[in-house]
């Protein structure tokens, strides 16, 4: 009788201890946990070492490092991933080196119209704006849409009207002018003039060497904070010579910008039309959620296969809740960098850099 009693107790103990998940089962133990981390990009495209001067190379690296430092500081002090991605993106928006904020590309009409988006992984709240012309840091307007309005996406005159009520830094549209970007527009206009009689708009764009050689200077950041939350932010001037109210992938939640604590945070750069059609950010998250893929596997599948199959060039930066980072791109280069807790910043430009 006594021994049956002990057998029962022992069996009960075994059942309880086996059903309780062990620590190794709770975390994705194929990858390491990082306390906090962030990654940034400053655009992808035909970026080759032989086409850059040593000064340009150094200038880009210094600015990327400054952006990483700004985000890292926020995370190190216990700040939110959301604040970190905004801090990093603002540094790049303020630099004429990138196609976002100061240095944004020109529309066909010779204007700078900027798009931006932000997403918070903990509650999947998001904010996006398209076609802004007067807000110095469009990413702050995207955040205001997320936090101070019941909406997710505002565009054109309405978005501007809302942003102007938000106590955000305003500038005259001429602030965004840079010679370099204006020359890019004129170059395209010139090609158009010679092609116009013979080709459709689509044919022209496909033939246009500038189009093929396109450098995408969009900026973005993803981060994981000490609380385990992740976030993504992206900001852009779009594509040179854009017209008809064209909006790219950047402010389309799920395409150029996406974040969900359950999977990953993604910020993209590249030929937006293809990124929209592939729904890049959400596709990567879905491959993780339903396909059981790791961050790196999911990113490769979308950027190196799905996008390539339909002719979409560019890349993404991504982070998951463990602080793993993946930055696949299918173009010649991508301005990019990352910094993990207690590690030095790593900044890269060309394809072969690891
Ligand atoms: N993805 C952006 C767009 O299509 C362009 C870029 O990445 O530079 O608007």
Automatic annotation (TrEMBL):
It holds the Pfam family Asparaginase_2. Substrate binds at residues 246-249, 269-272. This is Isoaspartyl peptidase. The keyword Signal does not apply. Gene3D superfamilies: (Glycosyl)asparaginase. InterPro entries: Ntn_hydrolases_N, Peptidase_T2. It comes from Algoriphagus faecimaris. CDD domains: Asparaginase_2 (cd04701). GO terms for molecular function: hydrolase activity, acting on carbon-nitrogen (but not peptide) bonds, in linear amides; peptidase activity.
């Amino acid at each position: 009788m006594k021994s049956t009693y002990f057998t029962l107790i022992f069996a009960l103990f075994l059942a309880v201890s086996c059903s309780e998940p062990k620590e190794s089962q709770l975390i994705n133990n194929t990858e390491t946990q990082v306390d906090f981390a962030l990654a940034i990009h400053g655009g992808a495209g035909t970026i080759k070492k032989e086409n850059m001067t040593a000064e340009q190379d150094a200038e880009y690296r210094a600015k990327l490092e400054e952006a990483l430092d700004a985000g890292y500081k926020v995370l190190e002090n216990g700040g939110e991933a959301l604040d970190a991605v905004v801090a990093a993106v603002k540094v790049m928006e303020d630099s004429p080196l990138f196609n976002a904020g100061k240095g944004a590309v020109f529309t066909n009409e010779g204007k700078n119209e900027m798009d931006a988006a932000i997403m918070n992984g903990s509650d999947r709240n998001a904010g996006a704006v398209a076609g802004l012309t007067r807000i110095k840091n469009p990413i702050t307007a995207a955040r205001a849409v997320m936090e101070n309005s019941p909406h997710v996406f505002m565009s054109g005159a309405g978005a501007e009207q809302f942003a102007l009520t938000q106590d955000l830094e305003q500038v005259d549209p001429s602030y965004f002018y840079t010679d370099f970007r204006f020359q890019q527009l004129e170059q395209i206009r010139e090609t158009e003039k010679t092609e116009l009689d013979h080709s459709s708009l689509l044919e022209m764009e496909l033939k246009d060497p500038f189009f093929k050689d396109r450098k995408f200077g969009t900026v973005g950041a993803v981060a994981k904070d000490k609380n385990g939350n992740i976030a993504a932010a992206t900001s852009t001037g779009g594509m040179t010579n854009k017209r008809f109210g064209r909006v790219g992938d950047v402010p389309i939640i799920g395409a150029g910008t996406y974040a969900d604590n359950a999977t990953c945070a993604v910020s993209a750069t590249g030929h937006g039309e293809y990124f929209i059609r592939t729904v890049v950010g959400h596709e990567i998250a879905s491959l993780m959620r339903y396909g059981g893929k790791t961050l790196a596997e999911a990113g490769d599948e979308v950027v190196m296969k799905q996008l390539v199959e339909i002719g979409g060039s560019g890349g993404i930066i991504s982070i998951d809740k463990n602080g793993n980072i993946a930055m696949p791109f299918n173009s010649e280069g991508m301005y990019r960098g990352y910094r993990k807790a207690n590690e030095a910043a790593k900044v890269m430009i060309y394809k072969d850099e690891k």
